Predict the 3D structure of the following.
Amino acid sequence: MTLVKPIIIPHIQKERDMNYLGFEKTTVRKTVKNLNHLLANYHIYYQNLRNFHWNVQGENFFDLHDKFENLYNDARLKIDEIAERILTLRHKPMSTLSDYLTYARIKEVKETLPDREMVLTLLENHKVLIEDFRKVLASAAESGDEGTVDMIGSFLENIEKSSWMLDAWASKHAVFDHVW
Ligand SMILES: [Fe+2]
């Protein structure tokens, strides 16, 4: 009996391993998974912001009501960008509320919090998003996916700045190092 050796045609094998943008499919899958988890967390964060926008009370109402609206409008745009980046990478974005609740690490806030607790909760939510951003950045950099790195890098910088502002609002005695 003669064994028939498979014929490997290099360019066809390469096409199977690479997607239409020229990325290796296996490393793209890692980035997409990270992006989908980020998407799930972003939706819960978004809904927490709507909750806080509607339910904030007290002497800081006017400031916080507006601030939360600005943040949820910003989150809405970023959610769309993240989902469309996943589609650009030729994958399916997580699209149902039940999946978001299953996969998100950020918890939905069910009770009505005092205003300062709302701000502290958002700072905690930001920490989770920042962790997710960094995971996406690491896997995207691994596959040379500069488009994702660029997009998520700017989102990271934006949310770090928002965290500084929320922290400045919540802290009475912030300590800064003098280094020069
Ligand atoms: Fe409103």
